[in-house]
Amino acid sequence: MTDLQQEIAQHGERGAPVEAWDAIAALYDEHVAPGEADLATAGLRLAGLQAGDTFLDVAAGPGGLSLPAARLGAKVLATDWSPEMIEHFNARAVAEGLDAEGRVMECHALDLPNDSYDVTGSLFGVMLVPDQMQALREMVRVTKPGGRVLMIVYGDPAGFEALHVFVSAAQAVVPEFEGPAEDEPLLEFQVADPDVLRQRLIEAGLRDVIVETSHQERITVRTGQQLWDWTIGSNPIPNMLVADLTDGQRADIIQVLDGMVRQRSGGNGSAMLTAPLNIGVGTK
User: Which residues are CB-neighbours of 139 under 8 A, at least 6 positions away?
Assistant: First the structure.
């Protein structure tokens, strides 16, 4: 195993440090979270969120799930262990005049009372924490009896087009470039199997669990730079993958991505890349 693969494997065991999430908060807020609104709304409707409900977003980032919840009329608390992510969330909530606040909080030990929220959810957050079962149990603990818990996560990594395009572009410039090791699955995909997600939600204390697999994330980009920014901003792992590349190699990869985006767009100006999703909902 290479040094890079060892670093990624260690990431999988302990989770990226808070500083790594702080470092990508601005990119996530600008390039990633806005594109999550449609799939977030689909999940919130599946969970039965109503105007006036109390909603807790766990591992919220800058608000890809909690901002849409607030726009639907819920009273929202967004939590994340990254102060920078919460700062971006609060700025957007204030700018839109939403009934929402953000607090820095660790998802494995939520500093909140039992039975507090009508709906508790997480989008691309709790899917990648080291002790997912503990985080799920915490989500259930703070949800009211009869309330719902929502998880939106990535499905089969083989269908994650943005990741595969990014790695292909990097390998075109740096042939020895290695993507994530196939024998060291990333935390992002620990519940990629819908049956595993269903079982974990049940084991966390939920009933009437459903998992929908018909939804996709849709990433729309017009340039290689936009795809680079989305990829680097979406998660600390891509930063680990490119950490040893020179500025020139990075610029060349972006140029290759440009060509790939143009080819995929078919001359229409923008290209869409998709990723399969699992949306799980259960009742406490």
Answer: 56, 58, 110, 120, 122, 126, 149, 204
Q: What are 124-149's pLDDT values in tens digits?
A: 999 989 899 999 999 999 999 999 99
What is the rounded distance in angstroms from the CA atom of residue 140 to the CA atom of residue 148?
8
103: Cβ contacts below 8 Å, ≥ 6 apart: 77, 78, 79, 86
Beta bridge partners, 130, equal: none
* Tokens, residue 179: 């993507």
DSSP-derived pairing of the beta strands 100-104 and 207-212? unpaired
- Find, among 62, 56, 59, 55, the residue nearest to 36 by Cα: 62
For Cα atoms 114, 55, 199, give the angle at the middle one, nearest 5 degrees.
70
Structure-derived torsion over alpha carbons of residues 75, 153, 86, 16, reported in degrees to the nearest 10: 150
Q: Which of 274, 148, 126 is nearest to 197 (CA)?
A: 126
Q: Where are the beta strands (DSSP E) in 14-133?
A: 54-57, 75-80, 100-104, 117-123
Report how far residue 193's alpha carbon sits from residue 185's, in angstroms, rounded to the nearest whole number. Answer: 12
Instruction: Give residue 41's identity as a one-letter amino acid code.
Output: T
CA dihedral 132, 213, 223, 238 (to 10 degrees): 20
Q: For the segment 77-98, what is each residue's pLDDT rounded down to a tens digit?
A: 999 999 999 999 999 999 999 9
Domains of the chain in sequence order = 3-283 (3.40.50.150)
